[in-house]
Design goal:
By secondary structure, the chain is α+β, with helices and mostly antiparallel strands. The protein has one domain (48-302). Helices cover 24% and strands 16% of the residues. The chain has helices at residues 3-11, 15-66, 103-106, 114-118, 297-302; strands spanning 73-74, 88-89, 93-102, 127-128, 132-133, 136-137, 141-142, 174-179, 215-219, 240-242, 248-250, 278-283, 288-292. A hairpin with a 4-residue loop joins strand 12 and strand 13 (288-292). The longest helix has 52 residues, at 15-66. The mean pLDDT is 90.
Amino acid sequence: MSVSVLRRRARAFTLVELLVVIAIIGILVALLLPAVQSAREAARRMQCQNNLKQMSLAVLNYENAMRNMPPGSFGKMNGNSNFPSGWSDPNYGSGLPWGHYSWAAAILPYCEQQNLYDQIDFTQAAYAESIPENGSERGPSGGINNKAIASLQPSWLVCPSAHRVKPKNQFKDYGINYGTGACCPERTQVGHTGVAWVNSTTEIGEIKDGMSNTFLFLEFAHFGSHSYVKYDEGTNQFLFVHHVSEGYVTCAEHDGTPTPPNSTTWNHRGSHSDHGGGVYASWCDGHVYFISDHIDYKVYRAMFTRAEREIFNFP
């Protein structure tokens, strides 16, 4: 046997050696994947925080121009009756809106989206392609002139960590603070302790607890249970608001039931996210912080009120 043949045999792997190498590679991949996933989630969290920051700065710019905070939602209404044709809920009567506009519409010009804002026909109701409610589908519905704009939602209204059950160009993942549980912010104009409700014009001077102590926005992931919309049905349309309070977040229901972050209680309007262990929120001064699911509820509730003069330490 030649020397060259012996050398070739000496360089070859045995089956055992090959299996060992494969096993080592498998272990390294198994160790690496969680680190990659962790890095990706960290990047998604940063993007979510940035979204909240930009929305909060837009609200402050709005306030600077208008001398009050934007409404939580807005549209034509005369007390609890006489909504213009097409603006009242066809199932529940004229006391409930059908196609009011979310705060997201109000802040568009202050988030470099003036062109998008100018395309909205505010003489008609907002439009939504899909309106899930209690296991049924009530959409599409709304002002036909606003059909195109309903699918042009800006990316900063979407949390990248939220799993999608509805299109990210039509359903947002954030809500505005309407307070501690009075019913219901999309139809009643009194009794709310937060910063925004239907056709509200809250001034900074009314936030007596302090801008740095009062929530502005919280995560309201579109897949979460919210009012009459079950988990993973999908709500929180870009512009459209009706009686399920799209775009609004509270810490308690009108019957007093507490709603901490990521609550699974039926028919609530609480904060929800896909970030493990809690939700992100912004305060009226624009700063952003992570709220644990296990936060002291008294502290959590206190940050929803604008003028109850609570004393607390957070974080």
